[in-house]
Amino acid sequence: MVTIRQYTVAAFREYLEGYRRGGAVLKATFLHHTWSPTPATWRGLPTMEGIRRAHLARGFSDIACHAYAAPDGTVFNGRPPSAFNCACQHPDEGADKWPPELRRLSAGDPAWMNRFGFGLETVGNFDAEDPATSRAMWTALDVLAIVHELWAIPVEHCFFHRDVSSKTCPGERVKRDWVHAELRRRLAPMPERPDVADWAKPYVARVKDLGLMTGYPDGTFHGGEPVTREELAVIICRLLD
Question: What pTM, to 2 d.p., does this model score?
Answer without folding.
Answer: 0.80
